[in-house]
Amino acid sequence: MKINLNFNSIKRAVALRKVAAFLITGILSVFSFISCNLQEEDNRVVIWTCSRDFAQYAELYNQSHKNNKVVIVYKENPAKSLPPLKDEANPDIVIGPWLQSDFVNNYFTSLDYIFDRRIISSSIFYPQLFEVGKFNDSQYLLPVSFNLPAVIYSASNNDKIKNDFTMSIDDIRQTAAEFNEKKKNGSFNKIGFTVTTNPDFLYLVSKMYDVDFCNNGEKTIWNEDKLKEAVKVVYDWVSAENNSIRTETDFDFKYLCMPDYRQVISDKTLFTYATSDRVFDILHNQYANIDYRWIEKDGKIQIEDSAIFLGIYKKTKNQAGCTEFITWFFNEANQDKILERKIDLNLDTEQFGFTGGFSSLIKVTEKSMPKYYTQLLSNVPPSQALTAAISQFPRWEDYKKSVIDPFFLDSIKEYERLETDKAEEKDTSTETILKQNITIEDYEKEWRKKLFD
Q1: What is the pLDDT of residues 161-180, one digit of tens each?
Q2: Whether this model's pTM surpasses 0.90
Q3: How far apart are CA 385 and CA 128, in angstroms?
Q4: E strand or H helix at 240, and its extent?
Q5: 392 compared with 352, residue with greater pLDDT
């Protein structure tokens, strides 16, 4: 039998088999790479936040969680970024202020399962803040951090402050009035507190007197009787102690056009208004030797509107990963480690405490934070004294500055004008107060024009 071997054909067949094997190996490698990448992406937790601090928290979390990594995406105002753009990847967790609107259930998933399964206990949170995260009796948001209102003053004036921890509006008024000093010509050389030159303080007064400015999606509403009461409180203070709004404005322009801490060490004024994040920024950076007192009314301290909350986005594909991160973050021992690391590495130069405020966990604020912020040792805000009335829309901060603040100040000016007319026996009536020349719609129109033009 004759065998005819075609060596060229054999060589080509072997070569083709090698190429096929190489291609198959390559294809399998690509599929393996894609599979690994997809698996890695599935295990990621994407967090949208406006807080730079979460970059530190993510780094610490990722070191101890190999199979569930956190990725931070910075958003200046996460609430305004919802829903995501069409070509934008969905977040898994959203953290920021102004999340607790009436549409919270449209964007976030209920977190009731976390408490039903006892993954976290609700008792670790400040109850006033925890309640704010509820919608229709379901928990959609968890509080992360918050700030409180205060007055600051030069420590050299400690002898003038009779209150140990907190001061009421009346306490501030009386103490500031005692500091006032006039020149021979009757003009002020010192004014203890210029009430109407700080819009944030005026807004705090409106909250303390339950004016309850809020926007229902169509227009701003408030309690008219409470507004009149708050306006009268401010007017009585200014007219009795500081002469007039114009006097305060002129004094502020002449003597107080400087940073807040410089104002109180200038000896031209006793108090200025600040929130806790600003207070501890001044203390930490040693800009000045200052002290502070929390501002209260009837034993209650108002939590600032800008409290930070956390929610799981409704369209997340990694709820298990989100739950794992939430469990880690809202752990008292872990938060203590975060604080310790932050102080040791000098990472607290820009933001105080947790995301620029007190922790929402009672024990962390009361036990851990005073170890690292020693000025809190004798003045930790008591849990039972805090009160929260926070439910505003995502653009509230800008809306407040452009609409609420000028409207409230104009209401006070209008009251002052009417009282002056009465004193001069002009034909006017207090029944017209807050109606004559006072329209919030004008401010709203201007705000909307700037917003949408």
Answers
A1: 999 899 999 999 999 999 99
A2: no
A3: 10
A4: helix 224-241
A5: 352
